[in-house]
Amino acid sequence: MIATAKQKPSPFSAVLLWKFSRFARNQEESIFYKSMLRKNGVEVVSVSEPMVEGPFGTLIERIIEWSDEYYSIRLSGEVKRGMTEKVERGGAVTIPSFGYSIENKKYIVNPDTAPIVRKIFSDYLNGIGSMKIARKLNALKIKTSRGNLWENRTVDYILQNPVYIGKIRWNPKRRTQLNYNDPDIMIVEGQHEPIIDEETFNKVQELIAENKKKHLSYTHSKINEEYMLHGLVKCSNCGASLAMAVKGSSLQCVKYIHGKCDISHSISIRKINAMVIIAIEQAFKTEIFNLSVKDVSKSSDNEIDINNLIEKEKQKLRRIKEAFEDGVYTLSEYKESKQIIETQISNLESRQIKPQNSEKELRRKLIEKNKNVIQQLRSPNLSEYEKNDILRSFVDKIVFNRTTSSIDIFFYI
């Protein structure tokens, strides 16, 4: 709405509200956006709180906004206090976790999803990791309670949630996120039936702690290492990036790591580096490769998004046509406005950059510009970061297909 109001001219002159408190979360936001709107001739009007004109009316409006903000802050505090008191009694204050439903404001075991929770705990105790469990659930077309695909962290959340042993976990001060060691967390006995027995739950917590110790050294020392193809390689199955795997010697699809992609794209960094260098060398020899034009002239016209401006003018055309059809514009007014806008579109189109070189010439230009790149990529004197920077100057993306053990490189100029 704000973006539309900023158009010249604005297509409307007022924003109607039931109360000023519905316009923004706080007075600071309200003043900022109202000022922005009024500079473009758009007023903000409260239907139930009519204001007199002049500085006195503005003062009253500010007092109302301040009062609304103060009320909102107090209400938020009261709601949080009420929820905390309910948690202390073991009551339900959030949407039910996977495996439960809610009836009469109380969690009840869901006969359809509770067995899945038990299976998750059982699989983990039997040595199946969170990622494999997530992938298994996705393969069975089972969705999370929010209707999403499963990830390893979703499974981890279930495995560490005391709700399944009949308890309620609640943080009265902040969002817990994944910090289950937050000292402000409350864990109290709930009013609901447990799905998992405490012995099983505790065994799982011990196993999680053991697994964390095993992987701790890898996750902190290896994962941030730089490599030549950083951010360039994509999964052919889901399109996600391939990132360095935990052990640091191979790449793997990010979504596969989290259990959201069902095809592994693991490949050693050494192997895919060699494949990319050979593929670039072959592409430059044959002059056959995928090419898109990104680099444009640095003229002042190109500092403006001309395509965006043209689209805005076309939107104006559509609006004046609708206005004419609704009887707002006469035929002569419509024709006059249409002619002005079409002239503006024509002027903008004439300023667009037109490709001056043939595709063949562009390919040769790219090859000539990067004639020493193979030597640079094979050089032991350049860092992985420097090689990555070189590749990013002319490679848009590299799609790796694990099934065929092949890559497609998309170049740009």
Summarize the structure in words.
With 413 residues, the chain is of the alpha/beta class. Among the domains are: 87 residues, no CATH class; 120 residues, Putative Large Serine Recombinase, Chain B, Domain 2 (Hect, E3 ligase catalytic domain fold, Alpha-Beta Complex); 51 residues. It contains 14 helices and 13 strands. The strands form 5 sheets. A 4-stranded mixed β-sheet has the order 7-12-13-11, with helices on one face. It has a 3-stranded antiparallel β-sheet with strand order 8-9-10. A two-stranded parallel ribbon has the order 1-2. α2 links the parallel β1 and β2. α5 packs across α6 and α10 packs antiparallel against α11. The longest helix is centred in the N-terminal third of the chain and has 34 residues. About 4% of the residues have low confidence.
Instruction: Please identify, by name, the CATH architecture of one domain.
Output: Alpha-Beta Complex
What amount of the residues lies in strands?
5-15%
Mean pLDDT: 83
Give me the Rg, rounded. Answer: 30 Å
CATH superfamily of one domain: Putative Large Serine Recombinase, Chain B, Domain 2
* Assembly level: single chain
Strand order of the largest sheet: 7-12-13-11
Overall SS class? alpha/beta
Count of alpha/pi helices? 14
Helix content: 40-55%
Total number of β-strand segments? 13
* Uncertain segments: 217-223, 295-304
Q: Regarding CATH, which class of one domain? A: Alpha Beta
H/E series: HEHEHEEHHHEEHEEEHEHEHHHHHEE
The geometry reads as flat
The main pleated sheet reads as: 4 strands, mixed
Q: What is the CATH fold-level name of one domain?
A: Hect, E3 ligase catalytic domain fold
